Amino acid sequence: MLISRATTADVVDLAQLLYVDTAGEVGDDEAVDEFAAELGRWWAHRGDSHAAFVARSTDGEVVGMAWVAFVPRVPRVPRPRATGRLSADIQTVFVRSDHRGRGLGTALVEAAAEHATRHGAAHVTVHSSRRAVPVDERLGFASSPQLLRTTAPRT
């Protein structure tokens, strides 16, 4: 297996994985192509703030992904030696069910986290599923009593 940074050439494969992750099934070619075009337009406007990583099988098929979003911590008041602050959030880690249990999710999260810190993120968070929490903890992620969140009420 190979983990690499995704490029625009991977948009259709990323769209297919997002379709499966969200809908729980493989989309028909027309639906995936339509979504891939939308994803490509979305990503073209966010190339500086979002990066994707893919896991490829030995035959080159994309079987997993992880996204990392960079979040500038503005309009936070500058601090001495910290006038520009950046955080990152790892999102949408997904590996096709027939390729799970081989360490691909771990490798994808590691690649995304390393990319984030290499590009200056002082903090990296990950949105985990219950099943992925032990994996993320083994990678050094930990719960924080200071990191709180709220969910907007559904209307």
Secondary structure blueprint with pairings:
Blueprint lengths: L1 E4 L5 H13 L5 H16 L5 E7 L5 E11 L13 E10 L8 H15 L4 E4 L6 H6 L17
Parallel strand pairs: 4-5
Antiparallel strand pairs: 1-2, 2-3, 3-4
Helix pairs in contact: 1-2
Describe the fold and architecture.
By secondary structure, the chain is of the alpha+beta class. It has helices at residues 11-23, 29-44, 104-118, 133-138; strands spanning 2-5, 50-56, 62-72, 86-95, 123-126. It has a five-stranded mixed beta sheet, sandwiched between helices. Helix 1 packs across helix 2 (29-44). The protein starts with a strand and ends in a 17-residue tail after the last helix.
The percent range for strand residues is 15-25%
The H-and-E topology, N to C, reads as EHHEEEHEH
What is the count of helical runs? Answer: 4
**If you consult CATH, what is the topology?**
Aminopeptidase
- Binned, the helix content reads 25-40%
| CATH class designation | Alpha Beta
Total of domains = 1
Which sheet architecture does the biggest sheet show? 5 strands, mixed
Silhouette: globular
* CATH second-level architecture: 3-Layer(aba) Sandwich
What would you call the structural class? alpha+beta
Please give the order of strands in the largest beta sheet.
1-2-3-4-5
Question: Gyration radius, to the nearest Å?
Answer: 17 Å
Could you report the average pLDDT, rounded to the nearest whole number? 88
From the structure provided, what is the oligomeric state, counting identical versus distinct chains? Answer: single chain
Gap between N and C termini: 44 Å
Low-confidence stretches: none
CATH superfamily caption: Gcn5-related N-acetyltransferase (GNAT)
Please give the number of β-strands: 5
